[in-house]
Amino acid sequence: MKPRVFGFSRAVLRWYRAHGRHGLPWQRDRDPYSIWVSEIMLQQTQVVTVIPYYERFILRFPDIARLARAPIDAVLDYWTGLGYYARARNLHQAARVIQHDYGGVFPDTFEAVIALPGIGRSSAGAILSFAHHRRHPVLDGNVRRVLARYFAILGDPGQAATQEALWDQLNAVLPKTGVCAADFNQAMMDLGALLCTRARPRCAKCPLARGCEGYASGTPERLPLRQHRRARPARQVTMLILVDPADRVLLERRPAKGIWGGLWSFPECPMGVDPKARCREIFGVASRPLAPLPSIRHGFTHFTLTIHPQLLRISRSAGARIGGDSLDWMAPGVAPRRGLATPVKRLLKQLDSVL
Fold first, then answer.
1. Which is catalytic among the residues 39, 111, 268, 281?
2. What is the spatial distance between Cα 27 and Cα 29, in angstroms, rounded to a whole number?
3. What's the CA gap between 204 and 219, in Å, rounded?
4. How many Å apart are CA 240 and CA 55, to the nearest integer?
């Protein structure tokens, strides 16, 4: 065994026992359902952000059966603000598959778990490792960073060849027993989150510093290598806020694919198009513009969006002609009990004070 591999897991586990995170909500037991929910929420989201969402979600959907029975609007409501909403839709769909195909019992084989919607190689390994102490590696962003620095693995982690190199090294240092592998997986994630951070890593406190090539180079933060990020493009859109005589506003459900997939939002109007004309085109009703609300800037992973909210007053008879499965009127001050895009939630709060 290579010198720098020997003792790797032992050092990580010793550090974890003294300094790792042992009191996270999903660590209270080995229930595969709660571990599964946490792993999906933790995809591309930090622990500190996930904890309050996780606790509310588990209270509302305490088991697979209740998650599977719940309407998607309820699931998205409890996910609102966490982002990456495809995760919630996949979670809901997977719960229905488990309820139908496995009698509501979370499967315990790698092949069955990875076949579920929204679960990849790393998430499947995490669930089986933490719930059943199976010997599966977990390769999240924190673990990639530790491995890339320790073994000086060059290349963009998003490329397949670099990914396979990381998996190979991870399998080489993974403990042989399932119980130790589970602790090791958690330890590696904690090490990346608490010490081997993206900027200003705390190498002096790291149990792996002695054999780490990144530390020896003097510039560990340069690894893993990253592609040059281009500036995010900027987009703009007008949101049409139709207001009826009862001061209710019209929401529509967005398509399942695309940004805010499956969430409820205001109808949109392209920039440069007259909002009154757009309202007549979409809904076939006349409207009277009111004073617009201040613009809102919202950031996505790949672009920024500036929203220009335009209020449009319509008559009672016009409002009665607007309806359908994907349209609904609501009072801004009433809790919607459905998934809302974050800017829409902000706009509803503003509307509650101005209407």
1. 39
2. 5
3. 13
4. 35
Number of other CB atoms surrounding residue 135 within 10 Å:
19
Tokens at residue 196, please? 């081997």
Question: What is the per-residue pLDDT across 152-210, written as a single tens digit (0 to 9) for each?
Answer: 999 888 899 999 999 999 999 999 988 899 999 999 999 999 999 999 999 999 999 99
Average pLDDT value for residue range 57-61: 98
Please identify which residue in the block is written with the tokens 């509501």.
Answer: 104
Burial of 259 (0-12, 13-18, 19+ CB in 10 A): middle
Average pLDDT for 109-129: 98
Phi, psi of 56 (to 5 degrees): -65, -40
The CATH superfamily label for domain 234-354 reads Nucleoside Triphosphate Pyrophosphohydrolase (3.90.79.10)
pLDDT tens digit sequence for 303-325: 999 999 999 999 989 888 998 88
Rounded to whole angstroms, the Cα distance separating 32 from 108 reads: 9
Integer CA distances (angstroms), 264 to 11, 63, 175, 279, 317, in order = 49, 26, 46, 18, 24
Beta-bridge partners for 240: 310
Helices of type H across the chain: 8-19, 32-42, 47-60, 64-69, 72-79, 86-101, 110-114, 121-132, 141-150, 160-173, 178-194, 213-217, 275-283, 316-320, 342-354
Residue 39 annotated to the active site = yes
Q: Which of 4, 90, 3, 7 is nearest to 41 (CA)?
A: 90
Cα angle 228-231-233, degrees, rounded to a multiple of 5: 140
pTM for the model = 0.91
pLDDT, tens digit, 9 for 90 and up, residues 327-337: 999 999 887 78
Taking the domains of the chain in order of start, what are their residue ranges?
A: 8-222, 234-354
Assigned CATH topology for domain 8-222? Endonuclease III; domain 1 (1.10.340)
